[in-house]
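Work package 3, deliverable 3.1, input record:
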Amino acid sequence: MRFISEQRLDDGVLEREFTLGEIPGTLWMPEWTPERTPASAAPLPLILMAHNNGMPKADPRLVARARYTAARGYAVATIDAAGCGDRPRSAADERARAELGRAMRAGEPLDDIAASVIGPLVENAVPDWRTTLDALLQLPGIGGPVGYSGGWAALGIRLATVEPRIAAAGFHAGGFVPRAQREEARQVTVPLLFLLQWDDEGNPRQRALDLFDAFGSKEKTLHANLGGHTGTPWFELEDGCRFFDRHLK
Amino acid sequence: MRFISEQRLDDGVLEREFTLGEIPGTLWMPEWTPERTPASAAPLPLILMAHNNGMPKADPRLVARARYTAARGYAVATIDAAGCGDRPRSAADERARAELGRAMRAGEPLDDIAASVIGPLVENAVPDWRTTLDALLQLPGIGGPVGYSGGWAALGIRLATVEPRIAAAGFHAGGFVPRAQREEARQVTVPLLFLLQWDDEGNPRQRALDLFDAFGSKEKTLHANLGGHTGTPWFELEDGCRFFDRHLK
């Protein structure tokens, strides 16, 4: 892991860009101070934060969530996994994405075409996230436990299923979850906070409620708020941190 | 309003029993201290807290919620309204209640019989709650705004519809709401926190989701947790206070 830039933010958070082989990433942590040094402080819990379906890690909404969470005493990391953000995509990937865009604009049923785009994206992203997790847990001051927080529920379901180090997960319901991950949800058993926008334009409410019902977790909480896809109220950011406080601190 | 007993609790809360005409009630408030006097402190917001379908105000779960909420900086009041708790009931009321109990034990459909018991209970309780609200707002140190918090959603819907002083409401979905109040829900427009137990034995999930959908409030949040009727996790008590903090403080 090679750090290529760093920036001190107003809220006492240090934001660092890194590369790990071909993977570009960003890590946010509270700044060290004379009172809080890597030697004296308890290791920070780590939250992996992913944006939906391959959207770039620099998306302002993701960055705002990450900074807020880091200021609350977490190491927060995001990456552009294979095929995500500005990472190169194969000609076949590009064609599938273009076809998905066309189907969305035409108002056609999306299930099969979305699965053909997002399924492989999830499969390819998982190894990059696990490699990143290995590297992050080697850094001074980061000690786990590990949480996953993200709009990208499909990736989160996959990661929580295959990655035993993930101890709690916060998902946003507003992204397409292929059938494979909907079925895999039964295998997710970590404490779960599931966030639903009640009138999300592109995501049928009943499907989201069915997904919440399917998770295997004994402790799971649904927060639903009125409004459309991007209308999640600010207090859910704080509620999300409090959820992680309960399980990771 | 006549105070008939008072008790200082460990958490800095003063618990006082009162009577208001025929209405028995309990009021919890943070104790006054040399630093916090009725003259110096900002008036406390008031929360009316009701237990389900006429259950007594002394129910330990209600009392625990009330004490916790008062310690967070609220005046909290509950009463046994007409026909509730130990208040006298007419022979007709007693017969209707016995019939409801029989139907429940027999597993019969409850809608009509429950409506015939709970509908009049709500109608008769509302004037007692409004009389109590008038009296409470005359007390030193209590200045509103006013919230309603309760398992008794049917009463809360009625009160929030007819009582403009109620500025925010927290309902537990796990009680029978007669059709009249389900229809009245559209007229409830205050900010709302709606609490649902996902596997509540006696309360169909879909009916609760439909009720949440029906409320006219622009700001409404659903919290659903795994488990049965009495399994609400402790952190929802804190979340409920934070909801009221946002709207009443």
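Chain A has seven helices and nine strands.
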